[in-house]
Each structure stands twice: as structure tokens, then as C-alpha cells.
Design brief:
It is a single chain. By secondary structure, the chain is of the alpha/beta class. It has two domains: 93 residues, Elongation Factor Tu (Ef-tu), domain 3 (Beta Barrel); 115 residues, Nucleotide-binding domain of ferredoxin-NADP reductase (FNR) module (Rossmann fold), CATH 3.40.50. It has five helices and eleven strands; from the N terminus they run E-E-E-E-E-H-E-E-H-E-H-E-H-E-H-E. The radius of gyration is 18 Å and the shape is globular. The two termini are 23 Å apart. InterPro entries: FAD-bd_8, FAD-bd_FR_type, FNR_nucleotide-bd, MRET, OxRdtase_FAD/NAD-bd, Riboflavin_synthase-like_b-brl. Pfam families: FAD_binding_8 (PF08022), NAD_binding_1 (PF00175). This is Flavodoxin reductase.
Length: 221
Amino acid sequence: MPISVRILQTELITHNVRHYRLEKPRDFRFAPGQATEVSIDKDGWRDQKRPFTFTSLQSDDTLEFTIKSYRDHPGVTNALWGLEAGDSLLLRDVWGTIQYKGPGTFIAGGAGVTPFIAILRDLNANGGLGGNRLIVSNKTEKDIILRDEFEAMAGLETLWTVTDDPGSSLLQERINREFLRQHISDFGQNFYLCGPDAMVKDLREALETLGASVDSVTWER
């Protein structure tokens, strides 16, 4: 049964991404990397559900989602952009298969980085980030989510690449098989993937051809 929770605060993260901090229901539990289906608690929106990952930690007093809004077409994320403190969202059962199995490389496309936020925050809080690497592709440099926070995490190596920002000083390459071959030296490690379905499928296949074990690759199934 859906639970209605009030928005306590919204915070702009990029030009089209916001944090939504919410009331945390009593005894509400989730693990880093898990998600729930969310809808807006208003007439006409309650049945329109979308999956979003928790970016807060279980130990936090509030819940947090970090959500990219697609402002160019009507829909749930566009409607979310218009919400403020005092509005309510509906949350459902917790689910998700992206859970931490040990040090490795996290690879994300755009907003696909969101399932990794709580995982890396949890590791950072407990001093366990050593041996982990985050590789993220975005269209432009201004699209990068929480860049400053990730770069400030001691022990986490970061690599940013952009695909449509010729003025940026960042790497200008798409993440594909050749990218993996050039920028990863150890294919015996753990890999965590999240992004558009086609990207994840291609990277899973590429990693396997490069020697990664199927069991070492984690993605949202």
C-alpha cells in the first residue's frame, strides 16, 4: 500500500536535477542502491509511477531522491519540477539489485549515476572507498551530477567524459568497448553498471569479451 510523505525541501543540483528531501516514515528501511516506485500525491498523478533510487542513507533522519527532470515533454519528472516543500509523494515497496559486492569500477551514463550515490556515500562514511573508481559519461560538463561531492571523497578515483561539449577540458569519448580497453587495466574486478538500457547491454557484452566474469558485473535486472 502506498505511503504518502511530505516534501521537506528541494535543492537544485544541476540545471535539470534536484534533490528532494522527504519525511522518513517510522521503521522505513532500505539498503544503499535500492529504489522504490514514486508518484505524485495529487489528482491525476497517483497512478503514474516511476522508479527512483534513494540517495540518502538508512541512518539519515530524512529520505532523499536525486531526480533529473525532462522538461521538454509532459510527464512525472516534469511535474516533479513544479513541486515544493509541503507537497507530497507516494512511495511503494523497496526493491533493487544494485548492491555493493566489493571494490570495483562503477560506470554510469548520465542520471544512471543515482543508484551509486548512496553506495558511495555509505562507503565514504565508513572509510571503505579505497580501490573504487567512478566513470561517468554525460552530454556536457554542466550535466555532471554531484561532481564536487564525488571528487572530494577520499579514496575514490573519478573519470568524467562528455560526448557533446567541445569546449570542455574533460575527456571527449563515448564509453564503449574501446574506451574500456584503454582506461581499465584489470578486468578481474567488480563492475557496477547503470544507464540507458542499450548502453548497459553493450557494456555488459563488451566487458565479457574483455575478460570480465559474468558474476562480477552488477546491473539493475
